[in-house]
Every structure is written in C-alpha cells, then in structure tokens.
Amino acid sequence: MIRSLRIGFFTLLFLLAGCASVDIEDYADSEPRLDIAEYFTGTTRAWGMVQDYSGEVQRRFTVEIQGRYEDDTLTLDESFVFSDGETDRRVWTFERIDEHSWVGTANDVEGQVEARRYGYVFHMRYPLEIDINGRMISFTMDDWMYLQPDGRLINRTAMRKFGLTLGEITLVFEKL
Questions:
Q1: Which residues contact 88 (CB under 8 A, 6 or more apart)?
Q2: Rounded Cα–Cα distance for residues 55 and 165 (Å)
Q3: What is the pLDDT at residue 130?
Q4: By CB neighbour count within 10 A (0-12 exposed, 13-18 middle, 19+ buried), where does 29 fall?
Q5: CB 39: neighbour CB atoms within 10 A?
Q6: Ramachandran quadrant class, 85 (left: phi over 0; alpha: psi -120 to 50; beta: rest)
Q7: How would you write the pLDDT of the chain (176 residues) with one tens digit per residue?
Q8: Counting beta carbons within 10 angstroms of the beta carbon of residue 155, is it exposed (0 to 12), middle (13 to 18) or buried (19 or more)?
Q9: Are 125 and 143 in contact (CB under 8 A)?
C-alpha cells in the first residue's frame, strides 16, 4: 500500500513538473531589450553543441547567419558546419506582427511558428524532423534566446518527444 502511494505521488509530481513553464511576459521590463530584426541584420556567427538526455555532447557546430530586414520581414540564411565536416542550411523568414509577436517559417520546419519577444528574451516552439542514425525523428523544439549585456545572445533549446526532454542545444551568438 505504501509503495503504491509513493509511486502515485512521484507520478503526479512528474506530471505536474511537465506542465510547469516559464511565462515570457515575466521578462517584459528586463534590459537590455532584444529586437531580433536589429540583432540579426547583417552577419552573425554562433557556436553550439547538441547534448543527449544524459548531458553527453553528441555534436558541435558553428553557424554563420546572413540577416536581412525589409518591410517588417526578417530573413535569416543560416549555414551550419558540424565538427565532423557535415554542412546544412536553414532559411528562416519571420514577419513582425506587433511589438511582441512574430510568425516564422523555415525550409525544414512544418507550418508556421509563433514567436514572442519580451525584454531581453525571445521564445518560439516548433516541430522539427531530425535525422538520427539514418532515421527521421520528429521533435518539438522549445527555443529560448537571452540577450546578454555584452551583446552576445545565448540560445537554449529543449528537444522534446512525448513531453520528455531527450536532448538540448546550446548556442552563443555574436554579431560580426
């Protein structure tokens, strides 16, 4: 009986923890203010890594981004180079909806992505299929960017499947 109660308690705790999330509006009054159109216009470089569920680094990479902002539309042309020599390219197009909201699309992301910005934080969540050992697996990417006082941008992305975080991506962006 006690064992069943413990299992039930930890199951409930696990489920409740999965429902908890940060509200981006809590950052509304924070500084410095992040304007992604301003930040990404021109050339930006990033260094990143992909970690699995245990924290082990699986891949390292660099990204060079060419950004263009015209008529409330931000286009980001991202060129990835992985430490094993593999290359990839993603092109994002974001349309500014209002002071806090953007709608984005990318060549390898299904559908439109809703993104929001408050204070120094930018957040978006989107589905992405990733090739893992020759098998395409669909993840929900929970993507958070944080502008630092020195102008660098830190990006943390949780890769989720069935509500569980199975991997994380960390990037540090720097304007060139």
A1: 79, 80, 82
A2: 11
A3: 87
A4: exposed
A5: 19
A6: left
A7: 565 545 544 444 444 444 557 899 989 989 999 999 999 999 999 999 999 999 999 999 999 999 999 999 999 999 999 999 999 999 999 999 999 999 999 999 989 999 999 999 999 999 999 888 899 989 999 999 999 999 999 999 999 999 999 999 999 999 99
A8: middle
A9: yes
Location of structure tokens 């990006």: 155
Residues 119 and 31: beta-carbon distance below 8 Å? yes
Beta bridge partners of 59: 50
User: Rounded to an integer, what distance in angstroms lies between the CA atom of residue 125 and that of residue 113?
Assistant: 7
Q: How is residue 46 written in tokens? A: 């990033």
Q: Which residue has the tokens 């908890």?
A: 20
CA 87 – CA 161 distance, rounded (Å): 25
Tokens at 117, concatenated = 């910005």
Angle (CA) 118 163 98, round 5°: 20
Amino acid residing at 160: R
Specify the DSSP element, H or E, that contains 99.
none
Question: Residue 8: exposed, middle, or buried by beta-carbon count in 10 A (0-12, 13-18, 19+)?
Answer: exposed
C-alpha separations of 169 from 8, 51, 53, 58, 160 in Å: 32, 6, 11, 10, 11
